[in-house]
Write a structure and sequence with these properties.
Elements (H helix, E strand, L loop, with lengths): L1 E6 L2 E3 L5 E9 L6 E7 L6 E7 L6 E3 L7 E6 L4 E6 L8 E9 L8 E4 L3 E5 L2
Parallel strand pairs: 2-11
Antiparallel strand pairs: 1-3, 3-8, 4-5, 4-9, 5-6, 7-8, 9-10, 9-11
Length: about 120
Amino acid sequence: QVQLAESGGGLVQPGGSLRLSCAASGDTPCISAMGWYRLPPGKERELVARMSTSDSTEIIYADSVKGRFTISRDDAKNTVYLEMNSLTPEDTAVYYCHAPYGNKCYGWEYEYWGQGTQVTVST
């Protein structure tokens, strides 16, 4: 099993920056990727960024955040970060840490989610 603990959300003005953190604990070697999804108000959940745990160069970004957001990880801390710059009101959402688990070790996959952290971009 895996537990995900998120932190770092909050209220920021347009053009500002925030950094989200997601610390994984438990059977972390069997996590195949870690990333972030977001749920904007009145919209569907969307992938923001994702990084493979096997290859740190294997990264996916949503087109809407390319050039503004950066995903990174600290393997020693089993933590993934999302650095968000040049934030706009359209980035307002609940951000969820996501970790697909199991396929790397057992051949099946289960998706773990964090509890979600609110990011609000507003004046």
